[in-house]
């Protein structure tokens, strides 16, 4: 039986892939979502430590918008969906956006 295995050619001439695009997930302020709920989301969804979660929540509250985390597209979209699902289940109008950064 002949050996049909092909030699694997090392592709040393190929350029490395460009780094994947990065997407920020931002929270937007509103007048109704409780501060404690926003802090809980930042800890549970974005894995921020409590003190940083509080700082991001206050930034959103005072400045209208704040960055929660930066991810590749599929992960950013999942975080966005988790935020919207948890907010709607709890009856809060909290909004979040995904933007290339
Ligand atoms: N502005 C909201 C309040 O006063 C708190 C809030 C913070 C909402 C961050 C949304 C995002 N209850």
List the helices and strands and how they pair.
Blueprint: E1 23-28, H1 35-44, H2 50-63, E2 65-71, H3 73-90, E3 95-100
Antiparallel strand pairs: 1-2, 1-3
This protein binds phenylalanine amide (NFA).
Structure description:
This protein is of the alpha+beta class and 101 residues long. The protein has a domain at 35-100: 2-Layer Sandwich (Ribosomal Protein L30, Chain: A), CATH 3.30.1390.10. The protein contains three helices and three strands. The protein has a three-stranded antiparallel beta sheet. Helix 1 packs across helix 2. The longest helix is centred in the last third of the chain and has 18 residues, at 73-90. 22% of the residues are buried. The structure holds phenylalanine amide. Phenylalanine amide (NFA) is lined by residues 27, 29-31, 33-35, 38, 57, 60-61, 94. Involved in the modulation of the specificity of the ClpAP-mediated ATP-dependent protein degradation. Binds to the N-terminal domain of the chaperone ClpA. It holds the Pfam family ClpS. GO terms for molecular function: peptidase activity. Residues 19-97 form the Adaptor protein ClpS core domain.
